[in-house]
Structure prediction request, 432 residues.
Amino acid sequence: MKLFRLALHWQIFIALVLAILVGVTLDPTTTLFGVSLNSVFNFVGTLFLNALKMLIVPLIMSSIIVGMMEIQPDTLGRLGSKTLIYYAASSLVAILIGLLVVNAFQPGLVDGEPARDMIGLSADTEDVIERVEGKGSGDLAEVFIRMIPPNIVSAAAQGKMLGLIFFSLLFGFFISRVKGQPGDTLKNFWNGLLDVMMQMTEWVMLFAPIGVFALVAKVLLASGLDAFKPLAVFFFTVLIALTIHLLLVMPAVLKFIARVSPAAHFRAMMPALLTAFSTSSSSATLPITIDCVENRAGVSNRVSGFTLPLGATVNMDGTALYECVAAMFIAQAYGLSLDLTTQFTIVLIALLTSIGVAGIPSASLVAITIILAAIGLPVEAIGLILVVDRVLDMCRTAVNVFSDSVAAVTIARLEGEETRLIVGSRQSSVGS
Ligand code: ASP
Prediction:
């Protein structure tokens, strides 16, 4: 199906640029035929987000189950341990980059003094605190408890990804042990379902330019540029750290371990990156990530079906880095002494909570309050960063999704796969 001659990622990119122009130039009260522009953007953006979310449960289940059916039991441990080691290592590297950059720029200090009073708490602080109330340090154990869902139907209905992933991993594994016709029937069913879900994903992706435009224009229209000024140093500290991870560390892994061209991989992942940026949700982007990694980066379903759904919740490099920079910034702004023990606590909790936070917008905020409580700061200190959180969420989510894709390609290579980049082959059906 061809909408325009232009490749899909270019269409999305142009939509993004237009959205930025519209978002920063128009007044938030602008109306169109008597309807506020903001509500039009909200309506269109929500339609697109809903369409993506609608795909998630059947796509994740079929993708993991088909992946698991093809994994021999003796290789499962190897694939699993490679994946988990990779995820932990890349998140740790991201956090350490954040730690270095935040120590270098010290965004929480102005002329050597804690900047708390100069920044001021944001107006929605109370709201956020209400939302995260009761989600104190006990949450860390919750993360692991959520992995085993007592009721798979309610886990699916509530979008509890970790539970769904755990069930699907087991289900796929045991299908591979069912012999004869029942085994073949099950395998054919899940293969067929996956095929349908992938085609539906490609169809939804055709609407990505419109969805991206609406989502990004809405955010920028609401926040405006002025709100960013007092937090400019913090904002750029996060951006610089994310950029180092995205443009130096990840390409190095692609080049030296996965042995694929970083530029070609970026091109292959562009639709997923831009969707992650505009939705601020790794989970909502997951269908597009899977499509790009399999159909444009040439990774087998065996590897991508296992690594990507898991990565969307467990592997969040951008989030881990952000948690560390944000907690350090708040601690600096409150004049807390940042000795080695405090910094170590921040790094450790950032690593653990980044595994557990959901792939949804603003999920990091809960994790940051856990860190604040652990280093002895009041939870309302989170109010210092709320104004810029939404835009930084867009950036860190793109890094989260990119890191998942790099993990898939790297693990495929370590598993002996030839991950030919095939950008443009099946993509022709999408929009080039
Ligand atoms: N929005 C991020 C994601 O979905 C999570 C976060 O850092 O808030 O990946």
Notes: The pocket of aspartic acid is lined by residues 280-282, 316, 319, 357, 359-364, 393, 396-397, 400 (CB under 6 Å).
